[in-house]
């Protein structure tokens, strides 16, 4: 069982961001010398690059097809209604807001499953285990096949979008927002995989979008995989990472959850074998 012995707030300082030097010292609340993790992560087997668990199945492909269809249906409804009503600016703005909200949602979700729950957690247990494995062997995400990487999010997107797709009246701005947001959330794991890729092997368009800040960049996401392992959670564009990390929103939420429920996030533990990157 993993044993922790670090101060409650001390784990957060210094952070691996360029803003560290501008921060004022914050009082530290000390914990008892040793606190045991209530739910230690399961022991994960080191995967092989050709491990069948990284391959797509027909079930994975079916969920990605359904999720993509639900997103494209919403965007099509928006486009048709926009052209009929000659209102292009509102839907375009709504789609951009949807893209921004998707980045924020990816950060909140990533923070939650990185830090709480276990493989036994209902519904998201597999994703929690996969993200823990990702921290230990980040390279596995570049070996995962497309549908294997996206199917869990695609399934959630399909069931969320289905009621909206069935709405009889198409509001172009609403469907632009919903389609863009859901599409970016579904694709966030692909954007994440590209952030782990070698630039020379990525499509030139992807590298260009990363350098423009449209997609999360390799350097930015790389900081998430280095100590103290508690920042840069957003994986669509990374636009929210600076705001969230400088305002310490997640650290405050972790404090509230610990003081209210006594639950410690995994990022408070020392960079132990569950977090440290292993070699390929
Ligand atoms: Zn993570
Ligand atoms: Zn990663």
From TrEMBL:
Statement: the UniProt record of this protein carries the keyword Membrane: yes
Keyword Repressor: no
Disordered: region residues: 15-53
Pfam families assigned to the protein according to its UniProt record, in alphabetical order: Lipid_desat
Main location: membrane
Coiled-coil annotated residue ranges, if any: none
Keywords from the named record: Membrane, Transmembrane, Transmembrane helix
Record's protein name: Lipid desaturase domain-containing protein
Species this chain originates from: Stephania japonica
């Amino acid at each position: 069982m993993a044993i922790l012995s670090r101060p409650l707030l001390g784990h957060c300082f210094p952070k691996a961001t360029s803003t560290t030097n501008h921060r004022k010292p914050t009082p530290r609340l000390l914990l008892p010398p040793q606190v045991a993790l209530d739910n230690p992560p399961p022991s994960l087997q080191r995967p092989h690059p050709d491990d069948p668990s990284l391959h797509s199945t027909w079930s994975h492909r079916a969920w990605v097809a359904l999720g993509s269809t639900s997103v494209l249906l919403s965007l099509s409804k928006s486009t048709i209604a926009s052209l009929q009503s000659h209102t292009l600016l509102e839907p375009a703005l709504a789609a951009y807001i949807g893209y921004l909200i998707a980045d924020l949602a990816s950060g909140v979700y990533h923070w939650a499953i990185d830090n709480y729950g276990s493989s036994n957690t209902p519904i998201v247990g597999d994703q929690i285990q996969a993200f823990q494995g990702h921290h230990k062997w980040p390279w596995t995400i570049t070996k995962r096949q497309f549908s294997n990487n996206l199917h869990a999010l695609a399934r959630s997107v399909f069931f969320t979008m289905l009621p909206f797709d069935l709405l009889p009246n198409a509001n172009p701005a609403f469907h632009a927002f919903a389609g863009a947001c859901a599409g970016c959330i579904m694709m966030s794991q692909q954007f994440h995989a590209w952030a782990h890729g070698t630039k020379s092997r990525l499509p030139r368009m992807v590298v260009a979008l990363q350098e423009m800040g449209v997609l999360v960049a390799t350097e930015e996401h790389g900081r998430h995989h280095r100590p103290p392992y508690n920042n840069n959670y957003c994986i669509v564009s990374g636009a929210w990472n600076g705001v969230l990390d400088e305002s310490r929103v997640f650290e405050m939420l972790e404090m509230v959850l610990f003081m209210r429920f006594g639950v410690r996030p995994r990022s408070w533990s020392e960079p132990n074998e569950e977090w440290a990157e292993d070699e390929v």
